[in-house]
Task: structure prediction
Amino acid sequence: MSTAEPPLDLLGVGIGPFNLSLAALADGVPGLRTAFLERQHGFRWHPGLLIDGSTLQVPYLADLVSLVEPTSPWSFVNWLKARERLFPFYFAERFHIRRAEYDAYCRWVSEELDSCRFGHQVDTVRWDAAREAFEVDFTRTGPDGGAEAVGRAFARNVVLGVGTAPRVPTPLRALADDPAAPVWHSGDYLRVRERLLAARHVSVVGSGQSGAEVFLDLLRHRPRGHEGLTWIARTPAFAPMEYSKLGLEQFTPDYTRYFHGLSEDVRDRLVPGQWQLHKGVSGDTLGEIHDELYLRTLDGGWPDAVLTPGVSVDEVRRTPEGRLGLDVSHAEQETGGSLVTDAVVCATGYAERPLDGLLAPLLPHLERDAAGRPRVDEAHRLVLGGPVTGSVFVQNAERHTHGVGAPDLGLAAWRSAVVLNALTGKDVYALPSRTAFTTFGLREPGTPLAHASRAGATRHRPA
Result:
């Protein structure tokens, strides 16, 4: 990227599924000049959780482009065609594809698109008023991660898709950071799987899909009667993810618009209560766990596996025997206990990566809400003041403004289209005016309830 060239129209930071979706749809906009930079040397999507048989929790139509532009050459179906796998997929009758297959599909797109450039670590983004463009400093890295060269690019607009980082509970954080300690995040599961299978006892912490899949895989590969497994979580139950058809409409653009229009305090109140929308477990996975446990009672007795929800880890210590002692508490019983184990898997999710370091020169112009978080407009742009006239879009960093659908793959293509339409100032991708049978709220124009509420207010107006 030569600094003598005119600024790019859009520069992306990070190449995960969301920015890859944007790159794929941008490829269909004539004349749009884009580049997407990623510090890794190839596309990688949660490689530690590509457990044999694990599937996406969304249908294959939630690929990078299809819900906006199903005729795109970057669709999942076209990837099957390019790999001469379309007929086998047709006969397989799979609506939910394997994670490994989704990973391979995304890798194909990332390798075919000229705009995707790996081995580029973006260091700083600042505004250049003279050029009316963002100045983006980056470091080119070698396969070993070492710096090979530095560079600079200019872009009128930037989109941040820097992903998330593993979240580990505070009591376990010090051990998780110690390479010698047998405490790992579930994102590293496949890398340490053999060590976990060899351990006398393993504890899985966290009740989401990752925790369930790790527990099930360990259960299936440990001897009957000597499973040595414990699964604990803070949630009040090992609950299924909301997967009813009307319930899933909370992952539509209609609900996203509704959520964005709510006040900040209402949004903050809603998100924790919606945990089953995105932190529950597939009903099929829960069924497979029960089936496996049930089979292990065939010869009498119960498997050596403990599943206890409603439990928090308060403290972790090393025992004199070199094992791990977990002090735990049960919220509903208001009591405590202890657990001795040999290894811990923290299936405790991911947190949005902070943007302050990357955007340090822009922070004086960044508007924040009452909680100090960046304000994000309906088009997924950071609200910037001062001299900055370009846009900084964000991907999966706006749950506080756009709701639990922010990290959902099913909304990736739609959000990418919103960004491209806002960036170009025209509808380069036509988006539907309605996406749900549910009407969220009473203020949506053109709905019977909206008319009824206004009429009612008129009838009961005091004289």
